[in-house]
Amino acid sequence: MATITMEQLTKVYPNGFKAVDALDLSIADGEFMVLVGPSGCGKTTALRMVAGLEDITSGTLRVGGHVMNEVAPPDRDIAMVFQNYALYPHMTVGQNIGFALKLRKIPKPEIAKIVRDAAGVLGLTSQLNLRPAQLSGGQRQRVAMGRAIVREPSAFLMDEPLSNLDAKLRVQMRAEVSRVQRRLGVATIYVTHDQVEAMTMGDRVAVLRGGLLQQCDAPQQLYDHPVNMFVAAFIGSPAMNLYAGVLSENRQAVRLGSQDLVLASRVGMTRPGLERYAGKELVVGIRPEHIVEATAGSLGTDDVTRLHAEVELIEALGSELLVHFRIDAARVHSDATHEDELGHDESSPESAGELSRAARADSIARLDPRIRLVVGAPITFEVDTTRIHFFDRMTGASIWQ
């Protein structure tokens, strides 16, 4: 068992590209830490530096209090689970799981017992004599985990281990990976680009962008108190709706296009920093789940205001409706919301809060599936203004203090 500490960990490639920039992060013994971010943000590079598969340009890596910068990968007492499983096709499941023990020249009876115990934990007992080609994707992933488990390492590293699985199996394996990690109680760093996976699995989640750590916190804290617009837009699915707005001089309302959203009286108390933005432009963020359909006479609380819109598209998902709607406010986005579809290079030196016009002008609300709506028809929403987020339009920083 060991802690993992990264102090100003930096990776610069020979061509000058800085993949990881002064990363400070500490993973406690037994903690499940998830590194999340879009493609190219540096999360896998950071993981590979911990594993010893990438040289460290500068900074210090400690595992169990010992500096590991120059220690060879086999001597770091760290087990890594790869995205592609990396199983030996000619070996059985049992042979794959026990291969590292065989290299250590552990007696065969002892290897057999350790392998059986690991297979029992992973639900692979009946597959021990099969070969990888005879297994499902989920079973192959369990074998890869078993091979790491039997080594009894000080720490686990997992590089997008579920990305090759179908959606249903990924959900099942999230729970499986979490269950095994809790049982073993070993410090684990888990890399993913899937923020839903990060939020459901991690004790803490570290959000990276362009090699820089944006925020590291408990999943709910990231959701409720993102430090900037990038984190706010990246965490949550569907993504937060972001609009260009103007705060009124008395800070009691915010204008979105032609509409004024009256703010709850306690918004100013909980966000004293808004005082600096009286009469000024800022960015307003509203999560889809904080928008509900208004009903006759339902507006009866100081916290709620109404928003008038037009229905653009309806996605019926059974348990909920995702309603795409349009208002006349200018939409903005951080690169967290559209970079994959627009091919944005998030390693570029832009500020984390740089704004630009969204590729799509519609917004999204998450509504009750029993609601009957018509595309093209007007709709009135209710918005809980105590859940609205505000960001500086130039820096993207969240406005609180």
List the helices and strands and how they pair.
Blueprint: E1 4-12, E2 18-27, E3 32-36, H1 43-51, E4 58-63, E5 66-67, E6 78-81, H2 93-103, H3 108-122, H4 137-149, E7 155-159, H5 167-184, E8 187-192, H6 195-201, E9 204-209, E10 212-217, H7 219-224, H8 229-234, E11 241-247, E12 253-256, E13 259-262, H9 265-270, E14 281-286, E15 291-293, E16 304-316, E17 321-326, E18 332-333, H10 335-342, E19 356-357, E20 363-367, E21 378-384, E22 389-391
Parallel strand pairs: 3-8, 3-9, 6-7, 7-8
Antiparallel strand pairs: 1-2, 1-4, 4-5, 9-10, 11-12, 11-14, 12-13, 14-22, 15-21, 16-17, 16-21, 17-20, 18-19
Can you put this structure into words, describing what you see?
This protein is α+β, with helices and mostly antiparallel strands. The chain has two domains: 4-227, 3-Layer(aba) Sandwich (Rossmann fold), CATH 3.40.50.300; 230-391, Beta Barrel (OB fold (Dihydrolipoamide Acetyltransferase, E2P)), CATH 2.40.50. Helices cover 25% and strands 30% of the residues. It contains ten helices and 22 strands. The protein has helices at 43-51, 93-103, 108-122, 137-149, 167-184, 195-201, 219-224, 229-234, 265-270, 335-342; strands at 4-12, 18-27, 32-36, 58-63, 66-67, 78-81, 155-159, 187-192, 204-209, 212-217, 241-247, 253-256, 259-262, 281-286, 291-293, 304-316, 321-326, 332-333, 356-357, 363-367, 378-384, 389-391. The strands form five sheets. Strands 6-7-8-3-9-10 form a six-stranded mixed beta sheet, sandwiched between helices. Strands 13-12-11-14-22 form a five-stranded antiparallel beta sheet. The protein has a five-stranded antiparallel beta sheet with strand order 15-21-16-17-20, with no helix packed on it. Strand 4 and strand 5 (66-67) form a beta hairpin. Helix 3 packs across helix 4 and helix 4 packs parallel to helix 5. The longest helix has 18 residues, at 167-184. The protein is elongated. Mean pLDDT is 90; it is low at 338-360.
